[in-house]
Amino acid sequence: MHTGLDDPRFLVPPLPPQHLSRPRLLDRLDQAAPAALTVLSAGAGTGKTVLLSEWARRRDESVAWLALTPSDNNPRRFWQLFLEAGRAAGQSYPASAWFPDGTVELVDSVLRSFTEPPARPVIVLDDAHMLTHPEIVAGLDRIILRWPHHIQLILAARNDPLLPLHRYRLAGLVKELRAADLAMTTTEVRDLLERHGVRLPDEEVRTLEARTEGWPAGVRLAAMRMVDDEQPKGFVALLAMDEGSIGEYLTEEVLTALPEQTQSLLIRTSFLDDVTGPLADAVTGVPDCRSVLTALARTNSFVIPVDPERITFRYHPLFREMLRQLARSQSPGAQQEQYARASAWYREQGDVPRALHWSVRAGDGAAIRSVLAHGGLAYAFVGHQDLGPTEVHPGPPPDGASPDELAEFEVTRRAIEALTVDAASAEGRYAVPGRLPIDHDPELTVTALVAEMMLGEKLADFGAVDVAATRLLADEDLRTSVEAVPGLRSSALLAQARARLGAGRVTEVDQLLRRAMAALPPDETPVVRLAALSLIAYVSVSARPRHADEAIDQAEVLLAGDRELARPVILDLAVARRAHVRGNLTEMDRALRRARAAGPVHAGIGQAAAMAYAQATLLAARGELAQAQALLRDDPAVNRTAVGLFGVVRDRELAEIDTALGRPRSALQRLHPHRDTAEGLVAQVAAARAYLALGELDRAAASVRTVITTPSPYVDRLLMVDAALCDAEIAHRRGEEGRTAELLDRALQLADGEFVLPFVRATPDLKPVLNRHGTLRARWPAPITGVPHPDPAFPEAETLPDALTYREQAVLRLMATSMSTAEIAEELCLSVNTVKTHLAAIYRKLAVGRRREAVFRARQLELL
Fold it and tell me: Which stretches make up the HTH luxR-type domain (predicted)?
């Protein structure tokens, strides 16, 4: 055996290069000093040794250090090393202290004869999980219980030592630091990167912290690999499986230390986000997996219990990615079988959404049909479950199928189309979704009606949506099947509200939204509540802006409290509309970029049209009139929905652009067909501005008066404010100073600080009046100097001249991982050739030649 002078195991280890001090943890160790025992229990690479090394080096008193190995789990050997470590740190034990055959006698002899120094000696046992021999454990227990004031023990271990920690906690004898305590904060991650000379934007730092969950070894390895990387931002998305770094570390330090059967369990269940013992039993075919997972959660920081009862577990994100890479080396048939087993298990448990997801991944046509027909489509509709872009095949109808079986096959085929096809494809296949004559089976009838609603929304066939929703909600024979799916009634009411809104029946929308909120089950279906709040916000912006604010705030709270909720596109469209009427073009631009990046989930032509309208209004507000005009005139979704109220709205916006471009007669000609319609009221202020441009003040006044004096559900507060301001401009042109001031005061009262955009548009013409009326000028919500421009602190993101399709966006998201082309194809249920076609299109549209360049360029464009 080495003496304490030359054995490196007795030396405090050196600190690593670019070491980052962590004062908050050093303070925790200082505060633990009064306790007899301090335990640092966490997995590999969590920084236990480095932390203790720095803490020992900054102490005035010496620290006895012993780095343990598996061979030290022998009482005679361990206690010799224990005494030698103490001597190496300057402690003096009498020669009579050694009792080779009695651990308890040794401990008592040493500590009884030990002269207590001014400060208690500290002994650090590194890798203390090696110590499992009962005699060693008993000796340590005796030190802690009998001699707590004579010595401070610090144990660093990958799992809890075999000591009665629960007793120590009750007696106040132990302090503990665990993996969650040792995880790096976002600030520490940033500081460590900077010590390596790597600077990343705050968002990328947060992404790195989230992907590593603050695992110090993962952060350090990532920093080391980014030092010479020309594009460190792109590395953040690829770090988990970058060959030779984190994946290799996890394989060698964590996985290979486990029994082969345990390794197989982890690899074969790695495709699951959460795993339970019974689910693992079903997937692997091996019984009693729960005991294995429970033991791993106790001894391994990379298997993490999700609940206090330790029923459900998850794997650390980087560990899971490494396991998934290993799982991909299995035969495709083996993986498909595991997916199918997971689907069957979830269906037995009544978890229809997950059963549907894994049946699709397994490519099991019969299972897909069965799940969809019996509630799967309804759950997907309620939960906004997105299966696409996928190529899902229901398989052929069964041989010799009866009429009922053929009807079920047709319903499930239509259900698959409702879930997976985009609006353009749906339009090519169905002129009208059409009713499916399924009346004998309530569950199947519900599936058929949900499919009709979903396809109707994709086709902007608002009548079909309304009819299907009405029957679903009113048919008493369907009540039990509808109530069996939490949130389905509210979701159908929301679909009906969207259909009525699209059809211009705005007076009926508010009541449907109230009914949808009232029908929500308490504390359930947050995704439906989020969808309802988002739609409420969208329709309330121009009439009840405070109501819209409340809905947006509640939606943001829901999103902040549940990471699994996807941000609805309609919520960002509501935020964009609110920003627009407040004249905040920067916020509007940000909201629209978020909406574009989100991609559609069961989206249809109506949502695409709403997006195009919002983008056009932003362009017009920025003065990019030609681009706004082209978008409103040529966008297919806008043209498809430009009927009724929305036809008037489209023509109103185009007329405003015509007037701004000096073509007021073209504007009036465009608005003429709507002059005598009920919906035409929304365009009367635009007509008044065109008449103003022509100098026809009486006609302008008549148009404004129509808006002000006609009771109509189409006239909201925003339109009334706009009408009052236009009336003020007319009075100003007539030289009626007093009336102008009176009308401006009325407009300000109506706006009540909630609308800014109409005042922005009116400022240039009314600036002389404002300069003469200080009280009006002081209340004016828009800059007097002119129209505000986007805040230069938030530069506009570049836009692609040729936008990526939804499938190309899905492929792009997986390009930011380490997946091969074949693996991307498998993940999306596409053929390899289809993926290659999408890759070629992505490279062309992003103007790049390589995968990493594509990922980097996509991040610049905020597509990722």
Answer: 797-862
Closest-CA residue to 731 (of 758, 765, 756): 765
Minimal CA–CA distance to 340: which of 377, 376, 366?
Answer: 366
- CA distances (Å), origin 749, targets 507, 744, 745, 753: 25, 9, 6, 8
Question: Where is mean pLDDT largest: 276-290, 301-315, 788-802?
Answer: 276-290
CA neighbor of 209 nearest in space, from 223, 225, 197, 227: 223
Q: How far apart are CA 726 and CA 695, in angstroms?
A: 13
Residue 804 · residue 845 · CB < 8 Å = yes
As assigned by CATH, the class of the 806-860 domain is: mainly alpha
Report d(CA 483, CA 480) in Å as an integer: 5
With a cut of 70, say whether residue 236 has pLDDT above it: no
Q: Which residues share a beta bridge with 315?
A: 303
More confident residue, 50 or 459: 50
557 in Cβ contact with 520 (< 8 Å): no
Cα distance between residue 637 and residue 614, in whole Å: 13
Q: What are phi and psi of 156, to 5 degrees?
A: -110, 120
Q: In this model, does residue 796 exceed pLDDT 90?
A: no
CATH of 8-182, one of 3.40.50.2000, 3.40.50.300, 1.10.10.60, 3.80.30.20: 3.40.50.300
- In the chain, CATH 3.40.50.300 sits at 8-182
Tens digit of each residue's pLDDT (9 = 90 or more) over 627-660: 999 999 998 888 888 888 889 999 999 999 999 9
Cα distance between the two ends of the chain: 57
- The two structure tokens encoding residue 89: 């740190």
Return the number of other C-beta atoms located less than 10 Å from residue 258's C-beta. Answer: 16
Least confident residue range of 76-85, 256-265, 402-411, 668-677: 402-411
